[in-house]
Amino acid sequence: MLLSKSITLVSVKTLLFKKTNNGNSGRPTLCRNCGAIVGAGQQQCAVCDAPVTTQATVRNASAAPDNETLRFARAILDRPYKFTIILLVANLFVFLLMWQSSGLTSQALWEFPEPVLIAYGAKLNSLINHQHQWWRFVTPMFVHVNLPHVLINMYSLWVVGPYVEKLYGSAKFIVFWVLTGIAGVVASYLTVRPSLAIGPGRFLFKGSDVLSAGASGALFGLVGVLFVFGIKFRHELPEGFKRAFGTGMLPIIMINLFIGYLGRGFIDNAAHLGGLASGALLALAIDYRRPGEKAVVATAWRVLQLACLVVVTLSFLKIAQNFPSSLPQASLAQQQAPATDERSSKYVSFAKAMNDGQDAFYLALKDHNIEQIDPAVKLLETAPSLDPKADEIKDGLKVLLLRTKAANQNANAGTVRSKQDEQNALAQDFSVWSKEYNAWLKTTGRSYGIIEVMETPSPAR
């Protein structure tokens, strides 16, 4: 999910309020000037006339309650957060509809079939490009692929949503949610770049057009809003709020980006960063509702809120119009059958070998590091056979790796020009191979249930 446990309501309150530590100023103390005993309640030493400040008084002064934080927090936290609850209910309602369309089986709770995800509006670039299904930029933020996915994201919404809605008001909150959610889907759409999904590029770019769904882009957007809020208004916020938001959000952001790096390939980091960046930009331009201000919302914000809700409504109306008269039950049953589990596990092993092979090629071609080539070739040789075309593609990658290894080992021979020509030839051949591999993924590869999830790490994160 989107947030670590450090941002739970209890821990935020701990940051907002200072603990009071009452001292006892009614006891005798020692004069700091001459060491004589000073009686309780005396303001100066009877021996040297030095003024006396007891340690208890100092402790009490330093530990005084942060009344400004208390006043500010009461004014903010007493505000309603009804649209957070509405969004939460809407996401759970869509999930239940998807479960019903999947046959209400326990297996479907752990992975919805691909036809169901497509029917309810998951993002797929080919459907947007060729069939102009623009609504798939909006609907994915309400679609989740399984039960853990929706529970994790809804817990995140329940934790962070009320703070944003209370600070900015319901109208701005809805605008934040919809716009950052769309921005996350757009970022995911733009990063389907097979030629860039090599080596470190796999953190952001995807090697094939795969299904993508989830509310994580919008949730990262809310985190971006709170991050900029704490920095932008740091001079007027009480101390407790400065600690809770602003730079206090950095550990949460960094932890989730690190987990996204570890899960690159199945976590849609582009959607996360797109939501985070758009939320930060919106918060830079938009003011929050300060304590004491009248609860009157500008007409423009009400219009924008209504426009966002209309866009969401129209998107789901398009889903209803294009909803298949009957989902292919045979296909659903096949995806839920134990035989499919075996197919999926074989594909996972195959995909790992292919990904490791591409990474080894990238390191050898760009950094002249051939240490990973032999392990990658061995993994390709032991990878399971899926179909004749997949075997042909796998063998093609193996040949490219061996050619790259030979080119690096013979680097001392030949002219600089011949070395550069060999590198250019390898890069061009790899580009041709990559297109062939992605074409297989888009066709035969779909039968193995290849799905990309806009998912975030769990709170154990």
Detailed description of the structure:
- The protein is 61% helix and 1% strand.
- It is an all-alpha fold and 461 residues long.
- It folds into three domains: 20-64, no CATH class; 79-331, Rhomboid-like fold (Up-down Bundle); 337-448.
- A two-stranded antiparallel sheet has the order 1-2.
- Helix 9 runs antiparallel to helix 13 (269-285), helix 9 (170-190) packs across helix 14 and helix 16 (338-367) packs antiparallel against helix 17.
- The longest helix has 30 residues, at 338-367.
- The termini are close together.
- 38% of the residues are buried.
List the keywords.
461 residues; mainly alpha; Rhomboid-like fold; 3 domains; two-stranded antiparallel ribbon; 2 strands
Short description:
It is built from 19 helices and 2 strands. It is mainly alpha-helical. The protein has a two-stranded antiparallel sheet with strand order 1-2.
Secondary structure: elements and pairs:
Blueprint (H helix, E strand, L loop, with lengths): L8 H8 L12 E2 L6 E2 L16 H8 L4 H11 L4 H20 L4 H5 L3 H6 L5 H7 L15 H22 L1 H21 L25 H17 L6 H6 L5 H13 L6 H17 L13 H23 L7 H8 L1 H30 L5 H10 L5 H22 L6 H27 L19
Antiparallel strand pairs: 1-2
The portion of residues forming beta strands comes to: under 5%
Spell out the CATH superfamily of the largest domain: Rhomboid-like
Overall average pLDDT: 79
Structural class: mainly alpha
Question: What is the name of the CATH topology of the largest domain?
Answer: Rhomboid-like fold
Q: Based on the coordinates given, report the CATH architecture of the largest domain.
A: Up-down Bundle
Number of helices: 19
**String of helices and strands:** HEEHHHHHHHHHHHHHHHHHH
**Biggest β-sheet strands, sense, barrel:** 2 strands, antiparallel
The strand line-up of the biggest sheet is 1-2
Radius of gyration: 29 Å
Number of domains: 3
Number of strands: 2
> Which residue ranges are poorly predicted, with pLDDT under 50 across at least 5 consecutive positions?
1-15, 17-25, 54-64, 450-461
What level of helicity do the residues show? 55-70%
